[in-house]
Design goal:
single chain; about 400 residues; alpha/beta; Rossmann fold; 6-stranded mixed β-sheet; 16 strands; about 40% helix; BCAA_transport; signal; Leu-bd
């Protein structure tokens, strides 16, 4: 009896151990599932200080609004919460690298977004490849980002210099027209001029001089004088930053000398300095009254609500587009943030933005998008020249050359 009783106890013990083991296995598996539902982390690189501070602020605002729009205010996608960390690059490439490294190594982000400066962005691109992390580029525009320096982890919602160039050239270039360009002496400026020149020459225009200025200059007198000396039909200006050449262009009466001005209409702060250019025809990336779609309607209304009646500015919809692109990609992967899966998903992916439908071109991951041919006009009650729509330039029309290797 004792032996039989002992065996019975052993059977009970073994049964309990099996049940415990099964429960343990279920618990372990559940933990693994929970680990898959950890928050998605996004690192946002932006100029919060420096010459492009306003661009960084616009992008971050747009990004936050984009997360809310794309997730219905939950900041959750495919069952996973979204967290984001904003780091100031100070508009310095070496700082951008330090901050990106911190985001990748210490914070363990699943995505990078940024940056305000092409120089900052170009410095960070190799890190995205090294850490096999998707980087959504916004708002940097240098062609080389999705061109000579491209790697497969890079996707750009920002337009590039060639897209700007197509729009800018369409406004003024034709056979026999002589054009001088003025741009900052950096990757943004030189890539922009190269792209504009290519587009303008195809339309029959001649670029008779390229003038480059110090990106942090506050006095452009000598640069503008060289423009005047060249005696072009048009001066095409490519510029970014709080310091602009418009005061010197006005003071030196460039237009009175028979030289027409054309440029991309900038953000609202810079538009306020362009009073002498009323009547100018050019292009713009965005002005809040131009796109007619539900996403832009939501953006304008929500931005006014959150920011004391202020309207979204030039780079706000870009930040929004970056957030929407990430959320849409993760929806399609059902929460999977494996970079190989994301690349496969995002190549050729279309998504709705405040500027209409964007599509990541498979070959170079550049988002094809709408730009706007505009004329600057004076409007009652508005203290800056307002970009008024001449016509939309479609994504197909502004599609840039494929420049990556």
């Amino acid at each position: 009896m004792k032996t039989l009783k002992h065996r019975f106890v052993m059977v009970i013990v073994l049964f309990v151990m099996v049940i415990a083991s099964a429960c343990s296995s279920e618990k372990t598996e559940g933990n693994e599932n929970n680990s898959n539902q950890e928050a998605i982390k996004i690192g946002v690189l932006a100029s919060r200080t420096g010459a492009l501070e306003s661009y960084g602020e616009q992008t971050v605002r747009g990004f936050e609004l984009g997360l809310d729009y794309a997730t219905g205010g939950t900041r959750t996608v495919a069952g996973r919460k979204i967290e984001y960390i904003v780091e100031d690059t100070e508009t310095k490439p070496e700082v951008a690298v330090q901050k990106a490294t911190k985001l990748l190594e210490e914070d363990g982000v699943d995505f990078l977004v940024g940056s305000s400066s092409s120089g900052d962005t170009l410095a960070v691109l190799p890190l995205a490849e090294e850490y096999e992390t998707i980087m959504v580029v916004e708002p940097a525009v240098a062609d080389s980002i999705t061109g000579s320096e491209f790697n497969p982890y890079i996707f750009r919602t920002a337009r590039n210099s060639s897209q700007d160039a197509v729009a800018g050239a369409a406004a003024i270039a034709e056979k026999g027209v002589k054009i001088v360009t003025l741009a900052p002496d950096n990757s943004f400026g030189r890539d922009g001029v190269a792209a504009f020149k290519e587009s303008a020459v195809k339309l029959g225009a001649e670029i008779i001089h390229e003038e480059y200025a110090d990106p942090v200059a506050t006095d452009f007198t000598s640069n503008v004088q060289k423009v005047i000396d060249a005696k072009p039909d048009y001066l095409f200006v490519i510029w970014a930053g709080a310091n602009t050449p418009w005061n010197q262009i006005a003071d030196m009466k460039v237009q009175d000398k028979g030289i027409k001005i054309s440029t991309g209409a900038p953000d609202i702060a810079a538009l306020s300095t362009m009073e002498p250019l009323i009547g100018m025809e050019g292009f713009t990336v965005y002005y809040h009254q131009l796109p007619q779609n539900e996403v832009n309607d939501w953006l304008v209304a929500e931005h006014k609500k959150r920011f004391n009646g202020d309207v979204p500015d030039l780079f706000t919809p870009g930040g929004m587009s970056a957030a929407i692109a990430i959320v849409e990609a993760v929806k399609k992967t059902e929460g999977n943030t494996d970079s190989a899966k994301l690349i496969e998903t995002m190549e050729g992916m279309s998504f709705e933005t405040a500027k209409g439908k964007m599509t990541f071109r498979k070959e170079d991951h550049q988002a094809l998008q709408t730009l706007y041919a505009i004329k600057l006009e004076k409007k009652e009650g508005v203290n800056y020249p307002v970009p008024v729509l001449i016509r939309e330039l479609t994504p197909e029309e502004t599609a840039p050359p494929i420049r990556n290797k």
